[in-house]
Model the fold of this input.
Amino acid sequence: MLTTGDLVIILDAKGRRYLVRLEEDGHFGHHAGGIDHDEIKRAGYGGRINTAKGANFWILRPTLEDYVLLMKRGAAVTYPKDAAAMLLMLDLSPGERVLEAGSGSGGLSLFLARAVGPEGSVVSYERRPAFKARAEENVRAWGAGNVSFVLGALEEAELEAESFDAVALDLMEPWTVLENAVSALKTGRKLVCYLPNITQVVQLLEEIRTRRLPLLKRRVLEVGHREWDVRPPIAHPHFRQIGHTAFLAEFVKLAPFRGQAVDEGQGQGQPGGGHGEDPVVTKAGGDDPSD
Ligand SMILES: C[S@@+](CC[C@H](N)C(=O)[O-])C[C@H]1O[C@@H](n2cnc3c(N)ncnc32)[C@H](O)[C@@H]1O
Done:
């Protein structure tokens, strides 16, 4: 049985979701008929409630995706489909340490925190006090205890070199924090940026190339989800879809090239001095689909 303080999703017949924290003597109001929180507690996760007005509601356990999309926001959150892809790119394991900026509403922090688990940790920088407070509250209310929020700009942080297993950046101008973020990242590990505009991706790559930062671009991609409405005989893509969210740009931190310091190397940023081919698909290998 659910108890006071538990979070639930109430799903209505039209598929709308409501995130509710159960209270003593609480009541959920809805035009199709309200429900007392005591009724929800008795129904439990997976339960169905029929109101006196004949409406059906389903009581569901909130997933992290539900929570991040429905929690209170300061800044716009990293969309969960993109957060999931970022976890894949960052290749996180339980017990690892992640550096994040900016915290925003704490959406991405929660996905990172779950991936590294209670033995791991997330250190998240946010330069706006109100957003830091919102992120802290959202993460606390979900119950994740492994995120430390720091008020300040990441470019001004004093970080130990090679002390993080991954870096996740969701901020407008990630190139401003790159020196600090790259220094703090362990060689061979990943840095991923979430960027709404392709112009930001282009500027990021250009900054990496001209500043000869030891980052190898692995891929730039978008994550597309195309949801379908399947209620036979109806079966077609939904008329309303999630539109564009962001581009994800993934990099690996390189070791100094043949004993040279990175800034003495030959454009260590990318293979071929910054404008080369992706090493995974080469003409010599005969794998290039355009051949
Ligand atoms: C789009 S929000 C991040 C949202 C977050 N990923 C989430 O899922 O809730 C971007 C945040 O970065 C913060 N920010 C921008 N530049 C920063 C910097 N140099 N250091 C720290 N935070 C920064 C902004 O104040 C803003 O809150």
